[in-house]
Amino acid sequence: MNLDITQELRSIFKRYFKSEPALFFSPGRINLIGDHTDYNMGLVLPGAIDRGITVALGLSSSTRSKLISTTFHEHIEFDVNDLNPRTENHWSDYVIGVIAEIKKFTIECPQLHIVVGSDLPIGCGLSSSAALENAISFGLNACLELQLEKIELAKIGQRTENEHIGVESGIMDQFIGLFGKKDHLILLDCQALHHKLLKWPFTDVEIVLVNSKVRRELVDSQFNKRRQSCFQVAKACGKHSLREVNIELLENNKHKISKNDLRKARFVLEENQRVHKSGESIESADISTLGKAMVDSHAGLRDKYNVSCPELDFLVDQALKQPEVLGSRMMGGGFGGCTINLIKRSTFREFRKSISQSYETKFQKTCDLYSVNLSDGTHQIQ
Question: pTM for the full model?
């Protein structure tokens, strides 16, 4: 959490609205392993991080709501009684979608004053949209005294993505943002919504993200097509989701499935196995097995699920040439964004120099590196 951002938002809120706001922080997330498994009701292994979105929020007696973003330098007005998206895929649509979902749980919702700030890079796979959804839903839940459970808030965020934004995503991003715990990852079963906290045992290992600066826009990036492919395979196997499908059942029904869809389904089944083994590796502090699972995951995302890109492949290949790197893979929906790397803690400077120089030489543009720490989930700032 960035205290400078918190103070800035409080100051802006008081200057514009002449009152003291309630302040809320919601983290971004990493996903160590398990991509494209959440909407297939599978297993994921994410963690909340110490970068995120801060919201200053207050209830208003005026006739219009006001929304300010310090990131995009925009001021937007809307009416909570007549909620419509501002423009397609505009950042404010996430706020308006959450408010629309929250209104289903209350008879009356007053107008709102909201100021939003962030230290999350946008569009690089750290779930800035889920962090914004969580901050708004958590804040409204507190200010309106709705007493909704965190799992309901996660579902509100997911419905916002699915029904208001048009991205058919799973629940992982909202869940980890709300349930995250400092120094822990979460092994999440997206079908049963059972989760297990796993303490990060590797005190000498640093989690480093490398941002390719290839913007990923999920609505336009064939994300929904991947989901539909998986649903079609599950249907061909007589099941509701790939979580209910095993390798034997898949092979027995492969004559009904296109080669491309079959390859994607195999990746999902294999990725679930890798997530399970990675959880065991963390519990036994086996960094070697964990690192290999990450490398195998990237190969599957690249060659079977077809969601990587040349920049991500280059960053992973270059990372794995460095002796200080213990594991590397692309992270998130794909088509750009970040790689996630496990490196020996004392070698960050050398890693940054090597990766930055080789990437700029190859693509004539820079990449950004972030060292992140596992953090607590969404909470009110006292």
Answer: 0.92
